[in-house]
Amino acid sequence: MDMKRRQQRVAITDFRTIRRSSKIAMKLAWESNRRWLITILLLNVITIVTTATQILVAKEIVNYIVDSVSSQDNDWGLIFLWLGVGIGVLLIQSVVDAVTSYGSRRLTEAIRLTVNLQILTHATTLDIARFEDPNFQDSLDRVNQSTSQSISAFISGLILLVTRLLELATIIIILALVEPLPVLAFGVVSFFSLRFLWWYTRASYLLDFNRATRRRWAGYFGSLMLGRGSVPEIKLLQLENHLMTTNQSILTQFAEEDRKLHLQATLGSLFFKTLSIIVSYVGLVWVTWRALNGELQVGDVALFLTAFTRLRSMTDIVTTGIQSVLGNALYVGELQRFKQEKPVMNLKEGDTLESVQGDIRFENVTFAYGNTNQPVLKDISFHIKPGEVVALVGENGSGKTTLVKLMARLYDPSEGRILLDDKDLKSYSAESIYPFMGFVLQSFNRYEATARDNIGYGNWKRYETDPEGVEAISKLANTDDLIKNLPEGYNTLLGRMFGDIELSGGQWQRMAIARAFARSEGILILDEPTANVDARTEYELFKQFQTLAQKRTAIIISHRFSTVSIADRIIVLHEGRIVEEGNHAQLLEKNGLYAELYHMQRGDLDES
Questions:
Q1: What are phi and psi of 136, to 5 degrees?
Q2: pLDDT digits over 68-100, tens only?
Q3: pLDDT of res. 229
């Protein structure tokens, strides 16, 4: 949806937005903590009663004093009765306010927990293609930015607003019984003031809506300057000033946009506040004049003065509350829009994969990312037999990593099909396929967790309660000595975010490989598994790898020919197509692209 249509939709909905958001928010509040929601609603009803009682008590006390002075008849018991009622009402209201404040905090905390859980739960249903969509990233930024706070603020603000509106209605009724004309004039001013506030609220929301992409850019530049992994290169390239200037430029744009909008809001607010003060005091003069002419009692004037002062302050509270509720209502919709995001590929849909033999067949597979028309893979066909070790070789950008991601069903082909054990991979749910994929990606994760957990995450359901099993996997992956030399062995917290121990790039990669080995069944996919390890470690690793791979199908992506030469078969890709296939010796004999790349790495190719 483009921005013009987005603005039109928001402009049309206006107060319907509150109705929809109220339904969503109250349902969330009910699910989060219904006991405190009901309690707060009942307490706010008590507040309405106490407000009206306070005004009426003030009137009765003033009228009684005036009557007593004129008649010289002092009934102190009655005046103390009214004073006692007034004090009792104030004490009740103090208790109500305290309990309401506590309950609101409890409800807010519960709502935040529920909203954050819903966001994370829905995110787990989305496939990798959604997370690679920049429009989805904007939506994710908006929903993460302030949704839980906005929903909590909306619910508490809505409850408070309804209470204040009822209080306001009570005050208006009382005032109208004394003198309706000033109340009517004040109502007209308040209506136009409210329309102005709604314009300002909608403009603020649209301004913030437009900022999602730029806000992500600003966050990106900030993370580059502050991120532990990026700071060394930033320092060496002396990019600090450039990144800071770019980041500052975005923030300056935000500040200028805010300045213009806030100036308009300030001038408008000043105009309507001035107008309401004039109307208030004209009304007071009018009521006083009527009292002097004997048309009203002095208590009525006192009531009007007290109630109209309360009316002005209450109207300010209500209009500000409506502005806040309207603003938060627009953000409440972000949660619903996020929850309506559908995966490109339904992760749960399909049959359950129970076991894997490892027979993989690509049939005329073509794939393009997103909405692009440029295929990354074109008409790919090959067959991998169970237990076979196959290496994928090719220059950067030839489609090797994309191919293995298709094999693991992180994506579905644009054309053609992939068969696993003679059945279309798409017929299985992606969630049931993943447990059979031991995967080491180029950009593997470095988990801020213990060494034991870093390996155990590879098969968490199995190894969460099996520490000895993790150590057995570690020995198989040749990381046992590394871990035992850490200060607390397998219980050492790795990473500098929460602990003190940082591994080298090669050591982290060895942990990732061990994590892949934790899945003893299915298919093993290693994408540049030895990129950060030395030759000795590589040799030891692949001795172990050959032992493990005897029991399962394995696919290796590597630029090191010492690695790929152990494969039973090598598939060579170039610009998204298969151009050669065979074992190491056969491909060297063909003297094609594989041989060219091999000799280039060996340094045997004549530079001419």
A1: -65, -40
A2: 666 656 666 677 777 788 788 888 888 888 888
A3: 61
Helix (H, G, I), strand (E, B) or coil at 545: helix
Which residue from 298, 291, 319, 56 is spatially nearest to 186, judged by alpha carbons? Answer: 319
> Which parts of 385-529 are beta strand (E)?
389-394, 415-420, 423-424, 437-440, 523-527
Do 378 and 441 share a domain, yes or no? Answer: yes
The sign of the CA dihedral 15, 17, 19, 25 is negative
Q: Residues 427, 313: one domain? A: no
Query: Rounded to an integer, what distance in angstroms lies between the CA atom of residue 522 and that of residue 553?
Result: 7
Tally the domains of the chain.
2
Which residues, at least 6 apart from 167, have a Cβ–Cβ distance to it below 8 Å? 47, 48, 51, 52, 314
Domain shared by 408 and 499, yes or no: yes
Q: Is 478 helix (H, G, I), strand (E, B) or coil?
A: coil
- Which residue type, as a one-letter code, is found at position 176? A
Structure-token match 């053609």, residue found:
416
432 inside domain: yes
Handedness of CA 90, 91, 94, 99 (dihedral sign): negative
CATH number of the domain that residue 550 is part of: 3.40.50.300
pLDDT band at 118 (very low <50, low <70, confident <90, very high): confident
pLDDT grade, residue 488 (50/70/90)?
very high
My answer on whether 435 and 323 are in the same domain is no
How is residue 29 written in tokens? 């509040």
> Per the structure block, which two tokens stand in for 167?
């209080």
Is residue 50 within 8 Å of residue 166, measured between CB atoms?
no
Query: Residue 129: CB partners within 8 Å, gap ≥ 6?
Result: 343, 344, 345, 369, 370, 411
Contact 437, 523 (CB under 8 A): yes
**CATH of residue 100:** 1.20.1560.10
Q: Could you tell me the residue range of the domain that residue 509 belongs to?
A: 367-602
- 596 Cα distance to chain centroid: 48
The pLDDT, as a whole number, for residue 146 is 62
Query: Which range has highest mean pLDDT (141-145, 362-366, 400-404)?
Result: 362-366
